[in-house]
Amino acid sequence: MDFADRARRVLPGGNTRTTIFVPPHPPYAVSGEGAVLTDDTGHRVIDGNNNYTSLIHGHAHPDVLAAAIEAAQRGTAFGLPTHAEVALAEHLRDRTGIEQWRFCNSGSEAVLMLLRAARAHTGRDLVVRFEGSYHGTGDALVSPDAPGVAPSAVLVLPQHDLGALTAAMREHGDRVAAVLIDLMPNHAGLAPADPAYVEALRDLTRQHGALLAIDEIITFRLHEGGLHRTYGIEPDLVAVGKVIGGGFPVGAIGGSAEVLAPFAPAAGAVSWGGTFNANPVTMAAGLTALTLFGTAEIAALNQRGDELRSRLRAEGVAVNGSGSLLRLMTPDPTRLWWDLYRRGVLIGTNGLLALSTAMTPDHLDQIAEAVTTS
Ligand SMILES: Cc1ncc(COP(=O)(O)O)c(C=O)c1O
């Protein structure tokens, strides 16, 4: 029996993540080392997916692995807080300037926690988000028409339409807890938001007493403090994930002590548990991964991404993105995915390509060659 047939018997569709599914079914991964992943047929590919941008140093980076093993040897989870979560929160504060943090296990969960924070802080119910931006799996964050989704107090506006945003805020502004934006939304084409629009958004939210909440779950890797820093704006809340966990499950929100105050246990406070929140293995691996990814490393990786994008564009390839995140624009992403996979490059199922520090110039040449000849 084909392994996918066996998998389909116990997992609907044969796996657990819609976002990694390619028809008829994706290959199954067996191992990864640096920039290379090996599947269960022994096929080796350069990993340009990096678990949807989260493996900033590729697979099994020796220092990240050592930090995780050392933490795991001391115990993988406790019914007490640990020093490790304080250390990662301090690191995030120092690199972003954002005062306080709260950890969870995925980006989806972080966005839900962010919405809870915004509603608890403002005492308002409505959230504004933008069509086509992906913020994970929460009911409020997917299409309200999708099966199984319960109605939420969410207003979905078109991307980059200042007129629509201004009108919506004029009409509903006093009910809006937060406007949630991803400044370079992958599912909407990985095009960076226009700075004038972002500045106007910041002004509008302030004017109406709503919070500006930025989803940096993919874009955090582009700048030490997150992509918003390149816009020179100050968000009220951010959601992060992916790279901050060193390859382990993670999510977090950051904000001022005032905005996150409702989470501090007290009468009437937000109650938000999580058996594995801030688990010490993730915290240790994340701290090591981020320590190895400072200003110089970020700039170097972004430059490699910019060079690859220029090179692909010069060959006539339609490619969006910024720095170390690229998106190959194609009307048939499944065909491109399989074509590149067979040629030895793994990308995201919608054409996303995320570089890692484990990639050598030779890997980047091989990626460019595969993309331009596919
Ligand atoms: C911008 C953005 N927000 C939220 C999420 C959800 O994160 P997770 O898959 O860790 O739940 C993702 C995942 O790709 C994302 O890209």
From TrEMBL:
Listed transmembrane segments: none
Gene3D superfamilies recorded: Aspartate Aminotransferase, domain 1, Type I PLP-dependent aspartate aminotransferase-like (Major domain)
Stretch forming the signal peptide: none
GO molecular function, a single term: transaminase activity
Keywords of the record: Aminotransferase, Antibiotic biosynthesis, Pyridoxal phosphate, Transferase
Cofactor (UniProt): pyridoxal 5'-phosphate
Pfam families (alphabetical): Aminotran_3
GO BP annotation list: antibiotic biosynthetic process
Family that this chain belongs to: Belongs to the class-III pyridoxal-phosphate-dependent aminotransferase family.
Protein's name according to its UniProt entry: Class III aminotransferase
Taxonomic classification: Bacteria, Bacillati, Actinomycetota, Actinomycetes, Pseudonocardiales
